[in-house]
Predict the structure.
Amino acid sequence: MSRPASKEAKSVGWRQLLHDRSVRWLYAGQIISQIGDGVSKVALLWFVYAMTDSALKMSLIGVLQTIPPLLFGPFAGVLLDRIDKRRAMIVIDVVRTGLLSSIPILYAMGLLSLPVLYVLVFVIAMFSMAFGPALNATLPLMVKKDQLTRINALMQSAMTIGQLLGPALSGILIAAIGAQNALYVNAGAFLISALCKLPLRLPDIRPQRNSQNVWRQAVKDLQDGIRFVFVKQRLLFLLMIVASIFTLGSTAFVYLLPVIGDRLLHVGAVALGWLWSSLSVGILMTTAWLLWRPQQSFCARIWMIAVAAGVAAFAVPALLISESVLIAAGLIAGIGATAGLITPLVSASLQERTPKDLMARVFGLFNTGTMVFSMIGMTLFGWIADSFGPGVSLTTIGVVNGAAAVVSFVLLPWCYRLAKETSAGSAQTLRRVS
């Protein structure tokens, strides 16, 4: 008798995913664009700081990049559910190529003022905001349901590779050709990413158009998405709450790393860089594990999310008693591993239980919610660190992660009950048919 989840079965599942030509092209494009994006994040901030010599004016770049998903995320989902996803991603990449290229071009021509730069950054953020829901709505069209966790982990690995390589490459490029010219690299990366999407073959699941007023139909589509999440699929809504609570603490932790390194661990910039890298290493470790492991049931995924949040609840405050940089790096890698586990599991769960014609709307709402919690976390825990010290901030983050774990455990009985009812309903249907 063969054993389930054997090494051979795991290997076949992993190979089967990359055997798909469309998956390979999409993954290649994501790696290239994420590395380019990592270059741009550092180069753009450096360029604005060199241009203005103002930390406040530099920080406004982050604010401008955050506003679009907060204000327009759900509406972007409405539009994306009604158009071809492949074409949408190609258009977004091509437009970002042109907009990013215009920054160094205008600067070289002496036509780039700070207000013009802010407008360009805002418009780029508008298009970038739409790319995430488009990508998440595309993945279920490419693989079967039992491969959703794997393909989400695969796309997460592309993002993590970009986080590891992009900033390092950006520093080299800034020194070699200047911060403004380094933006050409990201523009070129977006163009290559667009070309990588040309070979994709996806089914067309767009709803049929009707003669109803466009704006009225858009409002109705948005209402359908909200009703699906808040009324029809309350389990998904609670899962979104778990992810948002975890994001509240995890995003704040990332932005507090320099403070942790300076005030708690008393390390310099080089050691801080290693600590930051250990976070990405942890994400890559769990990403590789998810790629290798067969996809679990919906309830099993909630169990794994609860355990991961619980581990983070203990690992974050444990930094307060870490006796060396090496121990701190191990704890930070563990914290990164929990984040690397939760994101693909939540995304796969949303994709599994959401109709394909509602996918972009659901992820638009999800991204907006997590962005709100990210901003609250960065602001709140930054204030706590300044007012009461980083130790209090880390302890509070641990409590927040613990809350995410508790909510996940509370969901488990509900999940198993729903699964049992669904199984009983299917069996009854089969009996009627026979």
